[in-house]
Amino acid sequence: MVRNLLAAVALTAATYAAAETGVTESQVLLGQSAVFSGPAADLGIEMRTGALAYFDAVNAQGGVNGRKIVLKSVDDRYEPEGAVAATKKLIEEDKVFALFGYVGTPTFNAAAPIIKEARIPLVSAFTGAESLRDPMIRYVFNVRASYFDETEQIVQHLTAMGVDKIAVFYQNDAYGKVGLDGVTRALKKRNIALAGTTTVERNSVDVKKAVADMVKLDPQAIVMISAYKSCAAFIKAEKQAGKNPSFWNVSFVGSKALAKELGPEGRGVQISQVVPFPWDESIPVVREYTRLLKASSPTSEPNFSSLEGFISAKVMVEGLRRAGRNLTRDSLIRGLETMDPYDVGGFKITYTPQDHRGSRYVDLTIISKDQKFVR
């Protein structure tokens, strides 16, 4: 009788686990729509590299509650229609349990209705857009600070130095416009008018008109809201035109990729960051990241984007742990919402049932010589 009872309990547990999409007794399947080709490819590649460094280490220790983590990634090319197709594929065909590590504002915005309808959790999107934060989306858990947080810090720093003629070069899409809005709000708070704007199309490096317009504006500082290829092209063209204002980028630019793209002309370009300094091993999470990145991807160099992926993976794993053995999407959401706060190792994430912002951490960095960074 006892044997029959134990068998019945085991069968019930197995049936329960199998009933949740993307969950088996031995694994949990996560899905990622991100950019892995084209001018912004490094953003998705580095985000995934950092995440896998942590997932691989967890899997080597037996996974989470006995389940190994499998990450299925699909290239959306940093295009909204690509993100829609990738998200539908991940949910409807690949049958993933949860989503992880999306990259970009226009891509997330396009996929958002599908995510909401499917009621599928998404942990960490590589975007600081307010559309993920206000109003709060129950299924979306942010890790990074918002673009409003970043642009406020940039404008605060500039105006404290007496710089008040500030212009914006932005990508002509949802990402660029929310960054522009952030700069405008920060300036308005200080009763300063925006000096002007110029734009570039997404996935384009055609900056000729943008540079011509900016040369006429002749600002003291330019805040740039685009990806690394277009920002590098713009900075180089500005300098060729004889202009050298202070150039500021938000974190989405892809710092290491921007420095590489600019080469010697990158010195002095400034970037706001939403994760700790990847070379400061006095910070516990950075020390752990450095060690596990080397083990998982020996040829990869530390950078801000892969550190963000690593931290995001730690958050996902902790959420899975707190969700318990009987894993469901609702139990994952509830588990994540108990992180109030959760210290990943010198970097804190806070979620509650009313707030999924995660972090407001912003740091300011400068590209120095030899494509290195200083704080």
What does this protein look like?
The chain is α/β, with parallel strands linked by helices and 375 residues long. α8 (228-240) links the parallel β8 and β9 (246-249). α2 (41-60) packs across α11 (304-323) and α5 (147-160) packs across α6. The strands form three sheets. It has a seven-stranded mixed beta sheet, sandwiched between helices. A five-stranded parallel beta sheet has the order 2-1-3-4-5, with helices on both faces. It has helices spanning 2-19, 41-60, 80-93, 105-118, 147-160, 174-189, 208-217, 228-240, 255-262, 284-296, 304-323, 329-336; strands spanning 27-34, 68-75, 98-103, 122-126, 140-141, 166-171, 196-200, 221-225, 246-249, 270-273, 342-343, 348-352, 355-358, 363-367, 373-374.
Query: Approximately how much helix is present in the residues?
Result: 40-55%
- Characterize the main sheet: 7 strands, mixed
Give the beta-strand count.
15
Radius of gyration: 22 Å
Number of helices: 12
Beta percentage is 15-25%
SSE ordering: HEHEHEHEEHEHEHEHEHEHHHEEEEE
Task: Detail the poorly predicted runs.
Answer: 4-18
Structural class: alpha/beta
Shape, per Cα inertia axes: globular
Quaternary state of this entry equals single chain
Mean pLDDT: 95
User: How many angstroms does the end-to-end distance come to?
Assistant: 67 Å
In the sheet with the most strands, the strands line up as 7-6-8-9-10-14-15
Key terms for this structure?
single chain; 375 residues; alpha/beta; seven-stranded mixed beta sheet; 12 helices; globular
